[in-house]
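Researcher: Sequence of NUDIX hydrolase follows. Predict its structure.
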Amino acid sequence: MITVTITQEHIRTTIAAYLDRYPEDERALEAVLGLIDGVGDLTSRKTLPGHITAGAVLVGADGRVLHILHNATGKWLLPGGHLESSDETLLRAAGRELAEETGIPPHLVTPEGETPLHIDIHPIDANPAKDETAHQHFDFRFLFRTAAGIGELQAEEVSDAAWRAADTLHDEKLGRRLAQAMS
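Model: Prediction complete. Tokens:
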């Protein structure tokens, strides 16, 4: 089993900062906070009923948002994924995933802060090929900006990437927050 450097205390602190900014999400995150104390290591992709992932909302110079075509799901998603042992913070995990999947070098991307723009809880279908049952992802999504173009995609996970208008985001709450952050 991989041990991730991100601690439960860091997760709690990140959630507390998030709830200071977005108190309306407190009820939705009660389950995550309860799991921290109950199941223990939410950083492991084997933890059920769910675990933490880190995502990036990357806004280009023209205000469009980068989406990737994820191979496993066949869906257009925001860059992101599971935590790794080298990740020291959730923000750095999101930045690592962004760089890996899109090929955009980290020095060409600027994070907008240490607090997530959005924490999304969504179901993940079972994946027998990876010996994974259906579960949930607690996706900590951070806002980044760049003037760079798309680099070499991570072919194992991503088959395409595209800049899309911010108002095409499927999550209304994330769309509202992004609009506020960009104004």
